[in-house]
Design a protein that fits this description.
- The complex is a heterodimer of chains A (about 270) and B (about 550).
- In chain A, about 65% of the residues lie in helices and about 10% in strands.
- Chain A is mainly alpha-helical and about 270 residues long.
- The longest helix of chain B has 17 residues.
- The chains are: A mainly alpha (about 270), B alpha/beta (about 550).
- The interface between A and B is large, with 49 and 63 residues.
């Protein structure tokens, strides 16, 4: 069964060993790494987490080459973080660069807009950029090693209600439906004479906004039909049932990895408290 | 023993202007096979949802009357309790597949019944076997199953719970002929091998006549006739007025004055063998190709990015004023060919000429004035805030002045009977109105060729005939229509020409009456021939056969 990442971008983990881990372990590893970054204070403390996340990606056999495809998105996100700290905030510290772009004197005071770079601002830029990378690697690890089936049985094995687990499964199927519907609607617009390669960005934007009408309509119709199908089987949002059919067992490797990642999380929590 | 007892059931959806069920009284005996028939909007699915308590427990509206299923009052027992004993299978096999593989799908309905793992395994195997599948299907995902297989999985999922009543809501209407026959054999097996009460909503009267013990015909929320198939289908004109068409072989048998009620085509043929049959013969000619050519498809090949070859050297010409049916099994390349003609896909080899010029020479605006494409699901192509704007969309793209746009839109709305809905939001239109709007918005550009993808799939016969009549009228104005369809009886009745695709190749192209006489084409194209063709073939009557019951009655006379 393909992983979520495989369905979305065609990349998945190839390590049989990692893929055979218990689903709770596969969920906990990226979750603990993501949680740990909340307790990082400086760029240096994030670096081990990046290394750990990359190491897990390598162990699981996920090719990180897909990052190349999204380099523009990642670049924009990091630039946005940098611009926020340079143009829209003033972090106190040793000033490295300071230039006034705008100075307006008004009755109520002076409005100033400056490029203000301090060593603390740079440190924050590094910290947030590195955190983004940890989040990206963790997300890749989670989506590249989990199938929607894993997710359902994983959520059920930790005692979440059946309705919640099904909703998680349906969410991923819903995303696939949404993407396929989007392309059909786009094609239908082309069939009526829209040439997406020639129209302005603004026109394109409004056409995509228009596309939301059929997409929402289809989503509502499908949700209604799915809920009918589930009700017909006697499954309501609050239906409680423990999984008796799928009961995969934890192995030593699972316990070891759970312990290791708990330790990492604990270390970061303690580090932030001290 | 009664398993269903409905007394004076009335129901109105919260936002609805009219009552959907207006005083239904119905009793169903244990082990009975009841068919519910009626036109779209008659209230069939609403009645089905009332059987397990979804109406009124989960859907808001005004409810009165009493529904008792297996001695459970649906107002007193929760849906989940009722669902343990009554199982429902819906029309769309795609949507009701909730989990990511077959095993999980069946297990989902079983786990909460608190049965052991061993019993779950036993029931899975048993249910799959009943619908003609096996354990090798357990690991399959929805995208690895055909429509018929998905629907059979849905039935297996339902019967694995060992319900006392199985309700099937149009289980075959979204399927191609092959899928249909797979599901029908599963239903026959269930009927014959299980002690089960089956209630089936179905448009196809042939199927109902063969399977059902009793039929109820619903229209406007009321039961207008009830009885066994031989009683209901004898009221030909009455039920036709209510959107239910008897099987063609029944109509032929009754109108010819054959003794008794034929249960199926074979039965009618056997009865006809005992009679002297006189046939007024006529000659069907091959198509004359004297009209102007609009589209030329030359040696077109197409392969999808994943390597699947969809078309292998297709040649096809489309002439003006032609209504053409494009038929063939699923995966034969029908939609791919249609999209190539509409310029939405580019062939990897070969060329497409529109009015003698290569398709690449047209920009999107010009091409959409030549070729219009109507999608199978109208919701995919409706993206404006009002019906008026939807029809005007393509015209506005061409920067016409407002007066011209207004004039053209008004004419179009008139033609497709949408004028009173001009200011409505398309979101709130009925299924049929949405279909008409999709046609109108494409037709507004007056394309020379309209391609219509499966307009009759999932529709009742009355609606399908209306759509085909509309398309026929459009071709009389000079344009051509290419209709992708699985309904051979509709195609043969309305289309001037039929093109049969198989494995990406055109295996037949010509006059429908003559093409369907070719047994090899019928077999390879998985085509279901109309009853008249079977009768003509079995009785060795002089061909070509008629395509409508009226034509049959006019041409064939019997005496003892």
């Amino acid at each position: 069964m393909p992983t979520v990442l495989k369905e979305l971008v065609g990349i998945e983990a190839v390590s049989k060993w990692y893929m055979s881990l218990h689903v709770v372990t596969k969920i906990f590893i990226p979750f603990s790494i993501s949680l740990s970054i909340l307790f990082t204070k400086d760029p240096i403390s994030v670096i081990p987490l990046i290394l750990i996340a990359v190491a897990y990606c390598r162990i699981s056999g996920i090719s990180l080459s897909l990052l190349k495809r999204y380099i523009l998105v990642i670049g924009s996100m990091t630039s946005f973080v940098a611009l926020t700290f340079i143009l829209f905030s003033r972090k106190p510290g040793n000033v490295i660069f300071d230039v006034t772009l705008l100075n307006i004197k008004a009755e109520k005071g002076i409005f100033e807009w400056r490029i203000f770079i301090t060593d603390v601002a740079l440190s924050y830029i590094c910290l947030f950029t590195l955190r983004i990378f940890v989040m990206i690697f963790s997300a890749i690890l989670l989506l590249g090693t989990l199938t929607d089936r894993d997710l359902v049985w994983g959520l059920r094995s930790i005692g979440l209600p059946l309705g919640f687990a099904i909703a998680a499964s349906l969410f991923f199927r819903g995303v696939q439906f949404f993407i396929s519907d989007f392309y059909t609607v786009r094609e239908a617009m082309m069939a009526r004479g829209v040439d997406f390669s020639r129209i302005s960005l603004i026109k394109k934007f409004f056409l995509y906004i228009n596309a939301l009408i059929p997409l929402l309509s289809l989503m509502i119709t499908r949700s209604y039909e799915v809920s009918m199908a589930l009700e017909a089987r006697g499954i309501a949002p609050g239906t409680k049932s423990r999984s008796i059919y799928h009961k995969p067992k934890m192995r030593r490797a699972d316990y070891a990895l759970l312990a290791l990642n708990t330790l990492i999380l604990f270390t970061y929590v303690m580090g932030s408290l001290c | 023993m009664l398993v269903v007892k409905i007394e004076d059931l009335k129901w109105k959806y919260l936002e609805s202007r009219r009552q959907i069920l207006s005083g239904i009284n119905l009793k169903v005996e244990k082990g009975e096979f009841l068919a519910i028939m009626g036109p779209t909007g008659a209230g069939k699915t609403t009645l089905v949802l009332a059987l397990n308590g979804t109406i009124p427990q989960r859907i808001p509206g005004e409810f009165s009357g009493r529904v008792e299923v297996l001695n459970m009052d649906t107002l007193k027992y929760d849906v989940s309790d009722i669902a343990k004993r009554i199982a429902l299978v819906f029309e769309d096999p795609e949507i009701q597949f909730v989990m990511s593989n077959v095993e999980d799908e069946i297990v989902l309905g079983l786990e909460w019944l608190n049965i052991s793992r061993e019993e779950i395994e036993e029931r899975i195997e048993w249910a799959l076997d009943l619908v003609g599948l096996n354990k090798s299907f357990l690991v399959r995902q929805p995208n690895q199953l055909s429509g018929g297989e998905k629907q059979r999985i849905a039935i297996a999922t339902a019967i694995a719970r060992k319900p006392e009543i199985l309700v099937l809501d149009e289980p075959t209407s979204d399927l191609d002929p092959r899928g249909k026959s797979e599901v029908i054999s599963s239903i026959k097996k269930l009927r014959d091998e299980m002690d089960l009460t089956i209630i089936m909503v179905e448009h196809e009267s042939d199927l109902v006549s063969e399977l059902a013990d009793r039929i109820i015909v619903l229209d406007n929320g009321r039961i207008i006739v009830e009885g066994d198939p031989s009683y209901v289908f004898r009221k030909i004109d009455y039920i036709k007025n209510h959107g239910v068409f008897p099987p063609e072989y029944v109509e032929i048998g009754l109108k010819l004055g054959v003794n008794g009620f034929p249960r199926n085509v074979e039965d009618l043929i056997a009865r006809l063998r005992e009679k002297n049959i006189k046939v007024r013969q006529f000659e069907e000619k091959q198509l004359f190709r004297d009209k102007a050519k609009i589209v030329e498809v030359r040696n077109v090949e197409y392969a999808y990015p994943d390597g699947i070859v969809a078309l292998r050297g297709v040649n096809l010409d489309i002439f003006e004023k032609e209504l053409i049916a494009l038929v063939g099994p699923n995966g034969s390349g029908k939609t791919t060919l249609a999209k190539i003609i509409a310029g939405l896909l580019k062939p990897v080899k070969g060329e497409v000429l529109i009015d003698g010029r290569p398709i690449e020479n047209y920009d999107r605006l010009k091409l959409s004035e030549k070729i219009g494409y109507v999608y199978q699901n109208p919701e995919h192509q409706i993206f404006n805030q009002t019906v008026w704007d939807e029809v005007a969309f393509g015209l506005k793209l061409r920067n016409l002045n407002y007066k011209d746009i207004e004039e053209k839109v008004e004419k179009c709305l008139e033609k497709f009977k949408l004028k009173r809905l001009a200011r409505e939001h398309p979101f709130f239109l009925s299924k049929g109105e949405k279909r008409r709007l999709a046609l109108a918005s494409t037709y507004a550009l007056k394309p020379k060729v309209m391609i219509v993808d499966e307009p009759t799939t999932g529709q009742d016969k009355r609606f399908s005939e209306e759509i085909m009549k509309t398309l026929k009228v459009l071709t009389e104005y000079g344009g051509a229509c290419l209709v992708i369809t699985h309904s051979i009886s509709i195609a043969v009745k309305y289309c001037d020409r039929i093109v049969v695709l198989k494995d990406g190749k055109v295996i037949a192209d010509g006059n429908p009456r003559l093409v369907l006489l070719n047994e090899r084409v019928v077999e390879e194209g998985k085509l279901t021939t109309p009853a008249m063709f079977k009768i003509y073939k079995e009785l060795n009557l002089p061909t070509p056969p008629p395509v409508t019951v009226e034509e049959f009655i006019e041409r064939v006379k019997i005496s003892c």
